[in-house]
Amino acid sequence: MQHQIRAVLFDLDGVVVFTDKYHYLGWKKLADEKGWAFDEEVNHGCRGVPRLASLQVILDHNKVDLPQDEKERLADIKNEYYKELLKQINEDDIYPGVVPFLEKLKEEGVRMAICSSSKNAMPVLDALGLAKYFDAVITGNDIENPKPDPEIFLKGAAAVNMHPFHCLVFEDAESGVDAAHAAHMKCIGVGEPQRLPNAHECVTDYAQIDIQALLDAGRVKTIPKEPWNVTETDLKKNRFHYWETAFALSNGVFGVRGTFEESDPGYDEYPATLVNGICGYEPYQHIWKMPGYPEDRHAILNMADWANVDLSVDGETFSIATAKMSSHRRSLDLKRGILEREFVWETTSGKTVLVKTERLVSMVRRQIGALRYAVTAPDGCEVSLRSRTRLVVPSAVMPGEQVRVTKMDESFALQELTTADDRVAVAQAYSLDGDKSCDGTDWLFVCNASGKITLDKFFAVASTMDGDGFEALAQDELEAAREVGFDKLCAEQSAFWAQYWNDGDIEIDGDLQDQQGVRFSLFHLRQGNPERDNRSISANGLTGDGYSGHVFWDTEMYMLPPYIYTQPETVRPLLEYRYSILDKARERAVQMQGKGALFSWNSVKGEECGHVHEASTAEYHLLSDIAYAIELYDRMTGDDKFTLGKGAEILFEMCRFLEDRGCYVDGKGFCLNVVCGPDEYGCGVNNNAYTNVMARAMFNYSVAVYDRVVAAGVVPIVSAEEVAAWKKAADEMFVPYDEKTGLTPQDDSFLDMDPVDMDLIPKNTDIRPMVHPLNLWRMQVVKQADVVLLMYVHGELFTKEQKEKNYLYYEPKTNHGSSLSPCMHSILASELGYKEDAYRFFRQTALMDINDFKNNTGGGVHSACLGGCWMTVVNGFAGMRDYPDGLQFNPVLPEAWTRYSFPIVYKGSRFRVTVTADGADFKLESGEPLQIKVNGEDVRVS
Ligand code: BGC
Description:
single chain; Rossmann fold; Beta-galactosidase, Chain A, domain 5; nine-stranded antiparallel β-sheet; six-stranded parallel β-sheet; 34 strands; globular; binds beta-D-glucopyranose
């Protein structure tokens, strides 16, 4: 079974059965005999607590002190009473709805266990005929440490032979919830959320549970399925960080997380306005510093938190934590790129207040964000709106003092913040009719309600990343935005997104959740692209700082392909970004005692930040990935100015580095030793197949670019001898192949590594924190698509039989520890006709963030996976391949769908692909007719 949740561990009392009343009656009998006070309230303290501890609760309540042996004697007596009382247990004592729920889980093949501190769990289950549902029963007799110690759940997981990562706990007591957390398991509280604040989610009725949502991501239900919206209907404290990411708005230049407008110190919110490229530094404390080790850790910083408005009505301040609300709803409108919110607040003095907010981060004016806060309160109420802009906001990933306020104008309209490298200007303006005053850092608006009161807040940010005139830029842009007004900004935003959906949407009929997941992915993918020459897209875009704002190969290999085939004009700046940090890459090559340029594996401004050098710096494939992106751009756009200029310079410097890194080995040829491929569980491997094939392609392409540069009469920065060396390296590149099995070995040693029982390895999570590196490096377990990725990216080099062999060999050894993995498996599975795998991996990709599949979306969206999502449909189901002999498609229709359709831009021609059960349709929408292949046949698209 491939679900994220594969075993469910239940507490017994209050979760599956109610033995509470028998415990109560047992204690009551004892207490009455002893003349102690005991009632429901005292009993509450005894719930979920072992026997002796329960007795202590009663003794404390009665201020009675007893020696230990007497306590034990009395606890045993109570137990005898309890056992006697249990004889009365009957079906009415089973938790309503739990039996159908257990049956559904059984049908899905989920393993189940009871993990109850009660020593009488087994007789209870037997008496009620429930024992048959459970593969294991762990009771108080089996453990030494009671909850909140994780022992009982860890034993439960072991008894059902499941890794804790794939277990989900149902608990009704706080100590049990804490025990589940301590066992690193997800936990659903059975009871009211106020009573179980630490549970991920709570239920009171098992019938509410959507089994697929539960098994997919350990949640009670999925969010409402809608074609163009993503909506939060329930306020769940433990889901705030998820929604902050899901509702994060960005334009690639800056982004703001979807926190509520009103402040509430009691709430664990993570507000962040992240400005692309603005980062802080902190020295690494290496225990033993080696040459080439990175000096500093760097991380994107939180800048001014501007999207705040506090509301008071007649002196009562609204608090999201405590306010009485008859409704609360937030919805991201993907069609227009606007976040909307609406709630009705019943104040303690009985006023009904309607609040509507709208927020946008403008894709048209990349310096601008705006929000509207509209209040409808009964006539005559005094409404005050306090707009806060917190200039210095702590960053979770770099909490030190990294940001200083260096300028503040009198009216508080323009401020300047300074970081280690940059200066950032933030400016704000308002529009509202009413009295206003400014008290230092906040603006206060006080109005008397007569109808609707609307506050529009405009925010501008610009930094030294935007050039010298950044302060004026912030001010001018702010002024312009204020002048056009909020409604016009919304209209512009809608027009921008309408254009994007025209150019890049994937329409899916047949499964609304798939449609929603795909659009949500495309939305976040598009809004991450800054389209500025000195900035790229980090692994989380600007939706969170989980990856500290670092840029990886994710951009070139996973995000850039969807952009190039939908809106190619957005791609050049991403390549310009690499050029802007080429000097840093040159410095890095020197630090690594190499030639040319080595781009840093993870970085904001070019300096290497990855301290796990074996799975960062060693991923030299990044260079060929950048080359792959340049080649793709070159082929699709024919932009010689870039390719033969900056592109060529980047390529030549990267070739210099990689050619120098390699060596010739007798019987093999040109080898790249001690590298790390995409599979980061390996270390210092020789001849990673992906790395070598990609390097060969880079050398060959660079040689061709060199010839074009010379033909154009430009003096290249490299000599003919150097270029000849790249040609030789390409011609003699060693690509591992195992004659015996017909497999492409991932590297020289992978096939000889220790085989692993994959049932013991958790899936969909990075296992590096769980296994000592010396053990991991020996294991035949793959983190993410590596050979499988190669079979897609350079599919033209492999036969179908080879692809089959490799897929069937590597997929079962892959734990998909990275979100970059399922998409590539879906694509290859589609090609090979493995329909179930193709669809399952597609769903994991498309629902990765919207379903919070890995439980870490709170840290930001998985940007590479967003691009991977586009690829699973276009390159996967539709089978699009852009091979040297031309563009081809091999479309299939997933069983769950009746139709899908998307546009493609290819070398200036735009056409639409539509796939239904009747076949595929290709329709030219603009540009020159195209010659393509569909299922191997020549087709003219006209
Ligand atoms: C993956 C890398 C990826 C990085 C950032 C890691 O877990 O293994 O391939 O570049 O995440 O997304």
